Amino acid sequence: MANNEREKSVPSKNTAAHPSTGVLVAAWAVPVVVAGQFGLLSGIPIVITLAASLRDRRLRTLRWWTGGLALAYASLVTAWLAGPSEAPSLSKYLSPAATALLAAAGAVVAVVHHLVRRRSAVPAATTGK
Question: Which domain holds residue 62?
């Protein structure tokens, strides 16, 4: 019984309040994929970052940023599919300004993910007198 209590009291690496490396890679993949003219495929890393930020309640700041990116992506996909456009792909449908905005939004989300990860890795400063 003592071993079970000890195992419960020791925090594991999986309970850290920072995004994993895979989520960080997915966040950085969004602007790269959008800028590389693979707009529809950018939904995959967007879903990964959104799911990761919604999964952990300690990552509340990431939820708003990732939710905004997902909303921007979903609105562009909806406009492409519901509109009268004859564009065969999302990347050809997007104007250069919309592409730049979506890539910039992805970069902002990636930077926020990186900052949250960096801040959670730094141990809290202690004040000693």
Answer: 19-121
